[in-house]
Amino acid sequence: MSFLRLQGLEKRFPNGTVAVDQFDLTVAEGELVALLGPSGCGKTTTLRCIAGFEDPTAGTIELAGRRIDTLPPNRRDATMVFQGYALFPHLSVFENVAYGLRVRRVGGQSLRSRVADALALVGLTGLGERMPQQLSGGQQQRVALARALVLEPKLLLFDEPLSNLDAKLREQMRLEIRNLQRRVGITSVYVTHDQAEAMTLADRIAVMNAGRVAQLGSPREIYDEPADRFVADFVGHANFVDGRVRARDGDRLIVDVLGAVRGVSAAAGHYEPGDTVDVMVRPEAVRVGGAEGLEATVERASFIGNTALYQLSCVGQRLLSTVAMERGVPLHADGAAVRVSVRDEALRAFARPG
Amino acid sequence: MIATLRREPAAALLAGVAAAGLAVLIVYPLGSVLREAVVGEGGFDPEPLTRVLTNPVTRQIVVNTLVMGVLAGTGATLLGFALALTTARVARGRSRTGLHYIAMLPLVAPPFALALSTIFLFGRQGLVTRQLLGLEVSPYGLGGLLFVQVITFSPVAYLIFDALVRQLDPALEEAALNLGASRVRILRTVIVPLLRPGFAGAFLIIFVESLADLANPLLIGGDFNVLASSVYLAIIGEYDTRKAVGFSVVLLMPSLLAFFAQRIWVGEGNVVTVTGKPSTGRVQVFDPAVRVPLLAISVVTAILVLALYAAVVAGAFTKLLGINNTLTLDNFRFVLQGIGTRAMTDTTLLSAMAAPVAALAGLMVAYLVVRTRIPGRVVFDYVLMLGAAAPGIVLGLGILLAFNHPPLLLTGTAAIFVIAFTVRTAPVALRGCTAALMQIDPSLEHASANLGAGAVTTFRRVTLPLVRRAVLSGVIYSFTRNMTTLSTIALLVSPNWRIMTAQILNEIDSQRLGSGAAYSTILIVIVLVTIVLLQRLFGRATIEVAA
Q1: What is d(CA A71, CA A269) in angstroms, rounded to the nearest whole number?
Q2: Among A350, B123, B383, B393, which residue has the least CB neighbours within 10 Å?
Q3: Are strands A212-217 and A307-314 parallel, antiparallel or unpaired?
């Protein structure tokens, strides 16, 4: 079942910093897993360990039932799309894509047709004779993708491949990569710090923090049921308000929060009656402007376009709320008194550390 | 080391070859000089050193050397700065291009050329001083020596500042202007402080070059003796090896100190980085308070440089320039019917043999240092740099001492010249290749490995094509420098192989200034033709790599 398996991976640099720590991950065949995390969380180091550019200090890496962590980088059959593309500046687009095939002694008609197919796959037919620096950023990105795909590797690695593109193009390339990966059915590991990118592309996301996996799950699980405060905070936006535990009810907690006693979901942890907990509520779950609910004051209202962002003050706590907007929907003014409501299902409690 | 051998067998092999080469060709010769200085017949005996440092006459030579180095370093640095500022910020269009080439002209010619034409133009019978102005002045001594050295070495400073000034972000100057600073103030508070590493680097490099200069002190130094010429005279005139060794070690110390101080303080990036985007369009042109003095300095320098080169050629085609200005081909006839023809072919052949060897040696060490993880790899870099840090005459003396007895008896062979040329010029190829390799994003080589290529394929198909330009520059530099150097080979000459620079020295020593000028002209022509040919042959094919 598991096609790529990382077990107990650790990378400790000579200066003592531990970039990757007790890292376990399995990826199924054809699956795309994103490693998501802030800079310095070890996601790129993990990817470079898989590619063989870093030697892990402990742990094993298996690909298709074979250990690859002892192989040199050029024998791993796991091609990479580099962050800066790393296109060879002295070779044409055709020769860049042909590079790996030539190394494998593919030549003649077979070489030409495979390169042509790869270029067609990424929509660059006819640009083979160009030099890389004559292409736009998006086109260079596609060449890098074609160069990695043409070898039909067991595993495709992406190292923040879209970070050099502007926002619109990035969104477009996201979908293209997603469709391509699905069509070719190639197992992939995708490193990014951009959560929207991870959400769009990935079957599963491994959120990383300080060299470890903080949570591994589908985009929906990561967003709706974050395993800890770090994940809740890093993925999307989150309000944290104070709550007090009254009782435990199965895997739920009965908590005094936002002026009511509510049953909420809870992250793993130890909870006692009387404990103070952090209760998360996503801004879009904070509804503003109904007839019922808590009294709140709009401290600042911002119009974003498709949404409005309200900074609210509510029973002594500060809350952010995003509300869908469309033409004709009025914007509450700064200082306005409003009613705020939150559904119990939208809340999630986290134990306070210490 | 064992781990390296297993992981990177090719690199370990390369390291072994490099270590053996450096040990035999650099450490052993320079070690021979040091050994000779402190080991006498009865064991430890630093008499050669104490003699130089205690005798008042030789102590004066040491002081002279340092005074010359400091003054030439300061003068050439300031001149190079003024010229670079002019081409970058004042001159425009064609005058800018013209000044750029004139500023670099002294690089391609033998140092003799300038000393010789200085004697033609400003000597006791000089065309300008005596014939035009009727003055009775002598160029011989510190004044004339500094004049020649400042012009000779100013291109070094010019190139450093040219690269640095191009990198200056014009937005900084605009910001200062916007905050109310005058152009003079911007120069003082923005430009000069930002270029501080350039000043330190240029001064130290020129200081080292000035100390190593042999030709000019011999030709125009007069009674002003310096260490390099004293080493030469001790061997050639007195056959006193221990005396020569004493001078050599004393000369070696400030040279090495200044050279490695420059490398440590100024570092790689500050001097050689030329990757900055060329600043076009927005560049500020200074106001008259800055403009006029800069233009004046540049115009005077340009006229001087052109006049000096014209004087060499004129000197070659006249009986005796300044005294008897009759046109003649006698000088060339004398040179070419004498040993000149052999000297031309010998020198060209030896220089051409050494040039690719030097470039490849530089590339090999650069690759070891930048791209492998061999423990202690920086040592390779520093040892090879000794070839440039040590004054040529000291290096020549070391090679003479090291290879004049079995098992390595090379005296009088072509090999000894190829060794001397290679050791002397490989360091520049090393710097060029190091800079080129550091500019290649390691992800390119990673990408190649990731696509299945081994270390050798990656080097051949990715790395080498990308550093090709640097290797070619290394070949051209080495060839030029080999053709025009005197100090490195002055002690190695023998009747078997004739070297042009040594012949020029002979001619001038024998008061045959005309044939000296003819030799110099031939030498300049050979160098220029070769550069053009090499660039035609290989330059076209090299790929323009976008910065």
Answers
A1: 41
A2: B383
A3: unpaired
Q: Is A147 on the interface with B (CB under 8 A)?
A: yes
Which residues of chain B are within 8 Å of residue A104 when distances are taken between CB atoms? 452
Classify the phi-psi angles of B327: left when phi > 0, otherwise alpha if psi is within -120 to 50, otherwise beta.
Answer: beta
Is the pLDDT reported for residue B376 higher than 50? yes
ipTM of the complex: 0.76
- Residue A149 touches partner B, C-beta closer than 8 Å: no
The pLDDT, as a whole number, for residue B337 is 86
Q: Kindly identify which residue of chain A lies nearest to residue B458, measuring between CA atoms.
A: A103
pLDDT(B168) > 90: no
| Alpha-carbon distance values, A272 to A229, A246, A247, A354 (Å) | 19, 8, 7, 13
- Reference B144, options B62, B211, B72; nearest CA is B72
End-to-end CA distance of chain A: 39
Contact B443 A86 (CB under 8 A): yes
pTM of the complete model beyond 0.90 = no
- A146 to chain B: closest CA residue: B451
Segment among A124-133, A196-205, B277-286 with least mean pLDDT = B277-286
In chain A, the DSSP E strands lie at 2-12, 18-28, 32-36, 58-63, 66-67, 78-81, 155-159, 187-192, 204-209, 212-217, 239-249, 252-257, 260-266, 276-281, 287-288, 294-303, 307-314, 317-324, 337-341, 348-351
What mean pLDDT do residues A176-186 have? 92
Biggest alpha carbon–alpha carbon distance for chain A: 76
Pairing of strands A287-288, A337-341: antiparallel
And the tokens for B307? 């006049």
CB contact under 8 A, A88 and B444: yes
Mind giving me the DSSP string for A307-322? EEEEEEEETTEEEEEE
Which residue on chain A is closest to B544 by alpha carbon? Answer: A90
List, in order, residues 6 or more apart from B19 with CB less than 8 Å away: B380
Q: Which of B443, B444, B451 sits opposite A100 (nearest CB)?
A: B451
Size of interface A-B (CB pairs under 8 A): 68
Nearest to B133 by CA among B144, B121, B145, B148: B121
Spatial contact of B156 and B212, defined as CB atoms under 8 Å apart: no
Q: Is B75 helix (H, G, I), strand (E, B) or coil?
A: helix
User: Within an 8 Å CB–CB cutoff, is residue A84 touching chain B?
Assistant: yes
